[in-house]
Amino acid sequence: MTDAPLLDVKGLNVTFPTRDGGIFHAVRDLGFTLGRERLGIVGESGSGKSMTGRAILRLVRPPGKVIADHINLEGQNLLDLSERDMRKVRGQRISMVMQDPKFSLNPVMTVGNQIVEAYRLHASVSKKQAKQKALEMLEAVAIRDPERVFRAYPHEMSGGMGQRIMIAMMLVPDPEILIADEPTSALDVSVQGDVLRIMDKLVKERGMGLIFISHDLNLVSAFCDRILIMYAGRVVETCEAGKLHEATHPYTRGLLNSLPRLDEPRERLDVLQRDPSWSA
Ligand SMILES: Nc1ncnc2c1ncn2[C@@H]1O[C@H](COP(=O)(O)OP(=O)(O)OP(=O)(O)O)[C@@H](O)[C@H]1O
Ligand SMILES: [Mg+2]
After folding, report:
1. Distance in angstroms (rounded) separating the CA atoms of residues 179 and 174
2. What pLDDT, on a 0 to 100 scale, did the predictor assign at position 2?
3. Which domain does 209 fall in, by range?
4. What is the pTM of this model?
């Protein structure tokens, strides 16, 4: 990669006050850069993956706190922006597909109108143009009957369709970065493949940067270029996806050894080892 990173995160911490007056670190001293590539973030439940995504967009709700040396988007520190300017970043430059799309869609508004509204918020286009774009985006996420889906309400959609609609909505403004939080976990394998191909195309054709959050190490290593492995709020290891088998950290080794492998059937899978010193 020759060009400067799209995103450069340094010293990111997300904390929550605990009931006994202490501080809980959901994310601790996290740093990484993102180019026009597919970066995977993996780790077990509660390791801080979603909080990392939300923190980048300054979407951590109080009493949660985000502190960082910087979160630079093409050299501009997002922590220095006003809330108004930050809204523009969220709508146009960095999009995030949230882990549970059901909570992100408005139940009383048709799918099509939601996409049109999201688009018109940031682009001065006519309703007709916005509808055209919305239909194109629905088609791009492999929705077979976009006209029908355009007129439907969110509750009429399956979980998998809801997730693809969210992706369509997030892609309408042509973001430079897409943060996709478990975007395929509610999908069956064939649709999962469709969605991965769509995201792949966007990275290749539009030069988008993708942060792909998942607990599925197999999927991430097959799909991404680089992987951050998180444990208890920290990045314990960063590696090229193709070199995952060379990973050295005991937690990563444990994750690898606890995966079932088709080519090497085993009687029993290893139990994942944990060590408090890895997060110290
Ligand atoms: N509002 C909150 N108050 C206190 N702690 C929180 C809050 N939200 C999240 N946390 C804690 O922050 C930690 C990181 O949460 P996060 O949602 O980032 O995990 P995750 O890696 O995305 O997990 P999963 O794979 O289950 O989605 C967890 O231990 C969680 O319990
Ligand atoms: Mg999560």
Report:
1. 13
2. 46
3. 1-93+177-184+205-280
4. 0.87
